[in-house]
Each structure stands twice: as structure tokens, then as C-alpha cells.
Amino acid sequence: MTAATPLTGIETPALLLDLATFDRNVARLRRHLDALGVSFRPHVKTAKSIDLARRLFPDGTGPITVSTLAEAEYFADGGITDITYAVGLAPEKIARARALVARGVSLGVLIDSIEQAHALADAAADGAAMPGVLIEIDCDGHRGGLLPHDATIVAIADRLRAGGVALLGVLTHAGESYNARGGVGLPEMAEAERAAAVAAAGLLRDAGHACPVVSVGSTPTAHFARDLTGVTEVRAGVFMFFDLVMRGIGVCTLDDIAVSVLATVIGHRADKGWILTDAGWMAMSRDRGTQKHPVDQGYGLVCAMDGTPFPDLIVGDASQEHGILTVRPGSGATLPDLPVGSRVRILPNHACATSAQHDRYHVLDDGGTRVAAILPRIRGW
Amino acid sequence: MTAATPLTGIETPALLLDLATFDRNVARLRRHLDALGVSFRPHVKTAKSIDLARRLFPDGTGPITVSTLAEAEYFADGGITDITYAVGLAPEKIARARALVARGVSLGVLIDSIEQAHALADAAADGAAMPGVLIEIDCDGHRGGLLPHDATIVAIADRLRAGGVALLGVLTHAGESYNARGGVGLPEMAEAERAAAVAAAGLLRDAGHACPVVSVGSTPTAHFARDLTGVTEVRAGVFMFFDLVMRGIGVCTLDDIAVSVLATVIGHRADKGWILTDAGWMAMSRDRGTQKHPVDQGYGLVCAMDGTPFPDLIVGDASQEHGILTVRPGSGATLPDLPVGSRVRILPNHACATSAQHDRYHVLDDGGTRVAAILPRIRGW
Prior knowledge:
Two copies of one chain form a homodimer. Chain A contains eleven helices and 18 strands. By secondary structure, the first copy, chain A, is an alpha/beta fold. In chain A, strand 7, helix 6 and strand 8 form a beta-alpha-beta unit. In chain A, helix 5 runs parallel beside helix 6.
């Protein structure tokens, strides 16, 4: 296909991206973080696209956050030089991380145990360049990390110093913010995230470690933070696309969702109130992130081609290459008239998961009816 | 990496494939279908690998079933010449289907509406070659298709004949068999699937249509069918790998599962009873297919490197690149000692969904400790 192909002319299912909405989402969070006086290190695991990273950073060098070393390598290939790999480092990955440093990348890696500090210090014994290290802090019991007053934090820093490995600072992620609904409690979660990171940084400084970086972030807390005193940078990823989960959490509206899946109607079951499409879970992902929300969106919310949601029409069920559109139970809405061959746009529960099912973005033109460009995505590890 | 790399030396997460188990699974179903006197048309949406398709068919030409036209084109590129595309045909895909026929592929496409028959007949007016057509029959209310006695079946056949498009026959899929547990009811579901397809074929023949193909299949019903009189071929896909869902349904044992995800331990939360790995939902998929089973396997069942499951150790939760291993609630099992850097193998809920998260298989050698080969997979549409 060529650029400027009409949406009616591309193969389905296909991942659509509205760059005007993307830009608006990015500008909104930048404005908020600028006002709070902190720098911004977007998490590009959501985008996995060098073109979108360059749109985030007109000078093209970062800083960014990544979730895999494959992402780090890909974005470094594209000229990004300031990268934090924000998943706990497996010792076997040290050599690959060092290869990035040897290429000139300013790389930060994440650890939360003495074992990992030993492994890094042991590796550093050869005298070649090492990545800098962030110590993961747990602010809400969500995942990994050390509690902010755990003496292990200083023990790790001491071990790194003894081994000649640079400590960059501390990093935390308020993952429990994904369990908020309608914005309730998010300012408090943002403050707890800030307080945990700042406390851990204080512990390190009291023990004689500089701790220049105090990194926090999740999309919900980044938007609801009111004061980030002591924090140096904020990370967030899904904010750039937003999705139905973020809408349920209270961070965005439906109009803020920048990605959708284009699907074609392939059949009907009038007896069951079903419309079948060619966008199953392979196109939407298996993510059911709104399952426990007050508004369960199934596998996605169905919109007309102009992006307007049909009343209460969701992807009620999905198999590998079939989506079943149904009216949300109890809503009283009626099925729209969508003959075989009609096309719809489906908003995803989770933009990271849905986008990961696709190899490329179909970027919409200003009118939203044609494909202005194709942007590749990467995957794998 | 080179072939015969030890499993301890490859990057994680990684998709492992045990070909001996694959071969055993294939031989088991072939034997059963041979005894029932029907031919076998495996669904390669599970494998998405020409190497595995060639293993299924030593002569390399099929017959196979696919779920996308991209699969059809890929397998045709690899020499497969007999392909059924078993998802309802969007009219916009007719040209792409015809291009396969023009290349010499014997292609069957699936429809269940007069609108689709019109679209095919209209396309055929130019006189160039068309795919053959299968009419989708609903045997259990699971998805698309016409009820076996619906007069639309004959109307579609008449419309195709008037338009000069070849009718191959009827096709049904007992998707509700995925809701069985422990094998209960599966012989009856297999009989209902057979009966629906045979009844629809009878309707067509009574109306003067030949209906040479009577195609049925799902992995559960394929294994539990006791009599397939009137059926000409059986389709099944996930059987070649099997998975925890199939184990819960009662079609296989844990020993029959041919794919697993290799993961590395990256941290611990002793206070919470958690072991963290680098295999999150990006590596496992978001599939929670055992969520409503008597034995909920979380995002996967965790095994030692020799493939032996740890007692009741599951991936209790997952984020994009983190898996949280926990002991199954109420089991009384204890967490194994798995230091940072240890490796585990995780059995998936749904082999199709988990495999789709990976670009390649790491094929185990006979001892199960080294990678004997890398086989690429395809994706997309």
C-alpha cells in the first residue's frame, strides 16, 4: 500500500494511531511535570517505535525508559543515548548492558539485591565501562524493590562503591495506582511514591552516597502528583496512547485514546445479538484490564469510523481471529446496522498489550480517514 | 548464538519447543483419526512455522488449515498447496485469496451469508480463478455459522453455482468444547459436531449440491470422537503443543505439553512469598484461560529446568516484563529456593497465545538441556 491510502483500503485488522491525540497527551504531561519542576523520562515500552521516540525528543537523544535490552539496543541504534532499563537486572544480562555502554549509551540498570550488586561488582573487576545503577524501591507493595528504610539499600550502595560501579540513585513505580478507579486516591498514591523514593535517597545520602537520581512514575501518579519535592525525574509510558483502563482509573477520557484497531465485519448472529469481526484476541490481545472495573469494556469499545463510540457496543468475546461485538449487558442499547464488509474502530483496554500484537502503526491523516504513514514497531527480547 | 547452546546460555525470556513431545502429540491424533477413517487437516495457526508444517507433512504440501491470509501466503511460499482459510471471509479479502489461487494453491474460504456469496459471485464474473467455498455451520452456538437446517445454506450454494463459484462443502468447529472439564461431555460434543456437519451436507445434497467436503474439528472433540461417519476431514491446532487449558479440559497431561517459556529469576520478596522473573505477560501473553478451571494456573505453571513442575508454583501475577511466582493459594506448598539468576520453565495456559508472543522457537535437543535449532515463526495479517 502507498501512503494516503483510505482506511477503507487497508488490510484488517490493523493498528491505527492518531498523532494529534498522541501529541496532545504528551504535551499535557510535559506541561504538568514542567510546572512541578521535574524532568521527564518517558517509558517507550508502550510505543516501541523510534519514530515516536523522536517525536517525544526533537533532538533525538532521550532520556527514555525501556523494559527490555532489545528496546535499549533498538533505540540506541536510532540515536537515543540516555536510557534507563527499568526491569530488575538478571546477572546474565550484564554483558549485553555493558555492550551498550561501550557504544556510548548512558545506561542505567535496576537492582534490588546484594546478589545483583555482587554480580555487577564482579563484572567491573575487568576495568571496562559499566552501566550506572539504580536501586529499586517499593512504595506500595506492588512488585519488586526494597522498602524505603531497608538497610539493604545502603549495603548495595556500599558494595557497588567497593566494586567501582557508579550508583545513580533510586527508582520506584507506584504500580498499585492501576487499581484506582475514577481518580480516587491518586494524589495520595503519588505522594506515597514521592515520599518512598525521597526517603530511600535520604538513607543513601546519610550514609555518604550522592544519589543524584530520584526517579518515580506511573501514568496515574504522574498525572495526579501535586508536589514532587526531592524527585528529579518522572517516568510514564501508557499516557502517550492512553486506553480504556486509564479511562476507568480516571486519568483520561475516551477522546484521549490515540490508538485503535481497525476491523471488518465478517458475519452476524442476529439470534444471539452478535456481530462478528476479523479482530480477535490476536489483534486486541488477551488483556481484560477492565474486567473488574465498574464499566467492563470486554476486549474493547467499538467506534464508528469517525471515532465516535457506538452506544455500549463492546467486543464481548474473542477467539484468535474472531471478535464478537455485543451490546453491554443491561445497557438496553441496540445493535447498530453493520453489514458484512463494514469497518469499525476498536479502542483497547490496554494500549501496551494491544499495540504489542502489531508490527506497525497506521498513522491517520488530519482528517482521520486516510493512512498518512506507516511506522514500524519492534518486539522480542 | 550457535546451535547446541546450553539453555543456561540463551537470552530470556525464550520460547522452548520439545519436538519429541510434538511428534508424539501428532502421532497420537493421526492414529486416532486413521482409525476413524477420516483425513486430517491440522490448523497451523498454533505453530505458524513452515518447519513445523513440513514436520506434519513429510511431502510438504498439506492439507492445512490457517487463520489468516498472511499465514496462507507464508505457507504457500513454503510449498504448501492445499489450504483452508477457516475464518469468515471479508469481501475485501477476495482479491488476496484469488491471488493465492492464481499461484496454484488449492484454497478453501469460509462464508455463512448470502452477502458473502454475492461478493464471491460478483468477483467471479471476470472469469479468473476463484477459491472454493465452504459454508460455515454452527454446531453449538459458539461463534459464527448457520444452523444445520437453515435454508440459507442451500440459498448460498445456489447463489455460488449461479455465479460459477465452486462449493467445496461444509465446515463446523465445536468451540464450546473448550468449556468442558476433565473430559466430561466431550464424546457427546464430538457427536453433535459430526451430526451438525452431516445434516448440513445432507441438506445441500438433497438440493442437488455435491458437498464433497464435510469438515469438523476442535482439539477436544477430535480426540474424543468415537464415530465420524459422514465426515471427510478433521481440523485441530493446539493439540500439537497442548497446554494447561487442554489439560484442564481433560485432553492431555502435563507431560504432553511441548512448549514452555524459559525465564530467569530477577528478584525476591520473601515478605510476600514472591519470586520475580523476567517473563511477564509479554512473554506469557495475557491469556488466563484456566481462571475458571478447578485448578487455576495463573499465567502459567512453573517447572524446574528438567521440566518437572515445582509443587503448586504458578505465575500468580504478571506485568509487561515481570512475572511473580507464587505458591497456589491454599496448597500449603512452600516456595522453592531459586536464587537470582536461576532459570525456570513455565508451561502456558494457551499455547497459541503464548507462542504468538515470540518470533522463534528454541528447539530442545534430545537431552532437553541444549538448544538444537532455532525455528522462526510468523505473525501479522
